[in-house]
Amino acid sequence: MDRIQKILKEEGFTFPGRTYSHVVLEPAYHNAKMELLGPMLEVHYAHLVMLVEQNILTQEDGAAIRDALNQLDLKKIRNSCYDGQFEDLFFFVESEIIRLAGEIGGSLHLARSRNDMGVAIYRMTLRQYLLQTIQSAEHFLQTLLEVAEDHLDTLMLGYTHTQQAQPMTFAHYLLAVFDVIERDVTRLCHAFQTCNRSPLGAAALTTTGFPINRHRVKELLGFNGLVENSYDAIAGADYLSEAASAVKVALINLGRVVQDLLLWSTQEFSAIRVADPYVQTSSIMPQKRNPVSLEHIRSLSSSGVGAAETVLQMIHNTPFGDINDTEDDLQPFLWKCHKTAKEVYSLSTVVIGTLQVNKEILYQRTKQSFATITELADELTREVNIPFRTSHAIASKLVRICIERNIQPSQITSQHLDEAAIHIIGKPLQLSKQFVEKSMDPILFIQKRSQPGGPAHSEGRRMINARKQHLKDRIIETKRIQHSLASCSQTMQELTQKWMKTE
């Protein structure tokens, strides 16, 4: 007992204990006043409008509470420090409302709980972070299309298993990146739709005996639907895990692209050059141009992945109910990973948008590669009617002969092809020099790849145009949602203006 009394004497004999305040309540209060105060007030106004419209409160009482809400000193609240007088921000704000409105101010909490209110505030905060991430990603997608348009005819080698594979274009690569990022945005948009549903009216977990209108509150706050089941409204955390998973996948995908760009910016590769505003030099080596912007994109992306994974781990194996695990301690990690995603998309936009591409060296590297040998095998099947597996074997033998004798692709002759054919089918093909040259030409290789999704100029142009229109529609929709949410507060103010004022 002496030990217990000693601890309690140091910590305090009533709630909140000193260590509990320091570890939990103070950080939660700080995060809430900075991130959650605005949405909290929106919820207050919407709930108030509904209570009056449903005749649960009179217009006179509603006006008193409205005036108190209007008179709240938000600067004072944001500058306040946690002192233990109130459990959290909600109770502090409620005390201010009651102080300003009188006893009737306590009736603002009719027919609701901190449970449904808290989840609503979290959802409203998260939906803004999701929209910011989406908008930043959309800007990045615009830049990818612009850069791709500049490089429809920039030939380069494509790689599989990190080895030279076939010729393609830089535009083809960037369009592949675009499609991956665009799918990331689709996942983020789906996470927004899941998030943007109202739990309000669920109260603690079973709704309320008051004749509230859940749909009206949903409408006033810009939610696109209800979390209908009242237990799901306070227990379901999948809106959090979906938002974390979507941004985690997005940052992983971006990190893979940055890995390529860092490799291509080395002197050995010399494919791209990062613009001067985004490189740093060495304190000792004057020749250095360190592409640190790409390194920061990579490391920040990893940081965002870590924050998103933290969210998932905090939800993992928790009870299916209203729990603190999914509330104050978790939310900052979710905000962090989305803030990080927004910022790395912004940085990626300017870095990739200003890349200098060494077209000549990429073209020469393509010409000096055996990457077009697939086309030679295809031509043997098309023009000479040799079964593909046999023509593949002839082409493969030709490559081995050239490598053994240090013969460059541009130096291959019909005699070399005959030698390979004799080894495989026992007789020469006696094809022309032009046949070999055309089959090994990387430009012709690209031109022939005009199937849907191929690297040919015409197909690249078609894909860019189609994606431009789709992206334009997506951006318009994002702006529409932002405008709709921004107008909610004004709508509620207009609705309450007609109420009679208190003396």
TrEMBL record:
Task: Show the catalytic activity.
Answer: 2-(N(omega)-L-arginino)succinate = fumarate + L-arginine
List the pathway annotation.
Answer: Amino-acid biosynthesis; L-arginine biosynthesis; L-arginine from L-ornithine and carbamoyl phosphate: step 3/3
Instruction: Quote a single Gene Ontology cellular component term.
Output: cytosol
Outline the extent of the Fumarate lyase N-terminal domain. Answer: 101-302
The protein's location, in the record's own words, is: Cytoplasm
The record ties this protein, via InterPro entries, to:
Arg_succ_lyase_C, Argininosuccinate_lyase, Fumarase/histidase_N, Fumarate_lyase_fam, Fumarate_lyase_N, L-Aspartase-like
Question: Origin, by domain of life?
Answer: Bacteria
Q: Does the keyword Lyase apply?
A: yes
Question: Argininosuccinate lyase C-terminal domain location, by residue?
Answer: 370-421
Tell me which Gene3D superfamilies the record gives: Fumarase/aspartase (C-terminal domain) (1.10.40.30), Fumarase/aspartase (Central domain) (1.20.200.10), Fumarase/aspartase (N-terminal domain) (1.10.275.10)
Q: Does the keyword Amino-acid biosynthesis apply?
A: yes
EC number from the UniProt entry = 4.3.2.1
Identify the enzyme class. Answer: lyase
Example GO molecular function term? argininosuccinate lyase activity
Q: Which UniProt keywords apply?
A: Amino-acid biosynthesis, Arginine biosynthesis, Cytoplasm, Lyase
What does the entry give for GO biological process? L-arginine biosynthetic process via ornithine
Q: Which PANTHER family match?
A: ARGININOSUCCINATE LYASE
Stated family: Belongs to the lyase 1 family. Argininosuccinate lyase subfamily.
> Do you know which NCBIfam families this protein is assigned to?
argH
> What is the protein's name according to its record?
Argininosuccinate lyase
